[in-house]
């Protein structure tokens, strides 16, 4: 009995492997995709060069969709009205894309620390997420690179949605 207790407490062996998911991260230039993902991976962000001009490659985003199991859409909640409208159009397009429309979405309203930032409720209403995403699995959260705890919690929620989808399809 003592031998069993010792093995149970001390010799558990390696933890079971965690499932891995292919997730595509999209968003307009300046939304903070690279900064958020770098901080999430505990990498320095002081040498990040803005990817200006990346908006011209939006037409190629769909090449990265195949095989994705989830989507992270990052938007700049403090952007101009024009840029917010473009982000809204792109998010609507992604939510309706045949390769993404059944996937869980994490929408990060980034730059919540800026004075011009719109609240999560304002973003939800402006982007018309309730009617558009009805029947889909999605999460909308505010984010900032200075609060990685909240960003990690958002990703944990996305992982939960991915696991639920796996269980529905019998993948696990």
What does this structure look like?
This is ADP-ribosylation factor-like protein 15 isoform X6. It comes from Danio rerio. This protein has 172 residues and is an alpha/beta fold. The protein has a domain of 105 residues: 3-Layer(aba) Sandwich (Rossmann fold), CATH 3.40.50. The chain has a four-stranded parallel sheet, with helices on both faces. Helix 2 links the parallel strand 1 and strand 2. The relative contact order is 0.16.
The CATH architecture of the domain at 68-172 would be: 3-Layer(aba) Sandwich
User: What summary fits the major beta sheet?
Assistant: 4 strands, parallel
How many helices does DSSP assign? 6
**CATH top level class name of the domain at 68-172:** Alpha Beta
Alpha-beta content class:
alpha/beta
Q: What's the arrangement of strands in the largest beta sheet?
A: 1-2-3-4
- CATH superfamily label of the domain at 68-172: P-loop containing nucleotide triphosphate hydrolases
Please trace the helix and strand order, writing H or E for each element. HEHEHEHHEH
What low-confidence regions span 5 or more consecutive residues with pLDDT below 50?
none
Organism: Danio rerio (Zebrafish)
Protein name: ADP-ribosylation factor-like protein 15 isoform X6
